[in-house]
Model the fold of this input.
Amino acid sequence: MARCGCQGGCSCSVQGSGLISVSGNGSSGAPFVVGLTYGEDGGCAAIMGCVCDHSGDGLTCTGGQLRVQPSEDAGNLMRIGSDGGVFVPTAGASAGLVAGQAVNITGSQASGYTIGARISADQGNAVTLGTDGGLHVPGPRFAYGTLTARSVPTTTTDAWMVPVVAGQSGGFSVVPAGGVSRLQLPDGGTWFLQAQFRFNIAGFTTASGGVVYGGIDTPSRGNIIAKSYTRASSVSGMDTSVMEDFNDSATPRVGFRVQANATISSPPQAVGWWSAHRVGPSV
Done:
């Protein structure tokens, strides 16, 4: 053992602790060497090996490099910025959410974000939100049917024919309104209405000035006369049509009527057909 500056016989003992290791015996040929070791690593590798083995939550060690580990849980706003540092957007920032065409983003980091469809306010847009919150484009609105057969009356109070729905896109019904059976349309807006009336003219006669007519009745326009005739040979059929704006009424209703004036004898039997098509919103 080399002498350590002692005046008499003595020995020197140098020991390492923890990561510090000591080699050599202090002689000129085998001097003490103090270093760092961890497992089989030494120097910086020993430090990183020890730190990596003892890193806690939020850190990860890969390839001898210690890194911050952002959580992958949904809603986490923290990420690694473009300069390699930890980045969390300030409250109210978009947090990386950018609204594009037809997309709305509302809310904030603090309150949470809501992403929804942006519906154009341009006039005539048919896209709406349905009752389930999804996008809805109404399909064609239409219905058609028949009018029950009846003898043509000579009084306006008993001039109504009962509509029967034979086919529809949905929402049409026949409802009593003021003692009259009317066709209930499913919504307001502008509608194109048609009706055709046909008559059994066998045995029909008319006096001078006699008139037979058929028509569509709407609450806003009243009776729309189709055609009128004064000669028995001409009364075989007539039709009428009207474009009616119901001003977005919640209860748009349509009636159908036929009538002969009091001078006509032997009124004919009448049958009819009708159709209704929605052409757009109120104008």
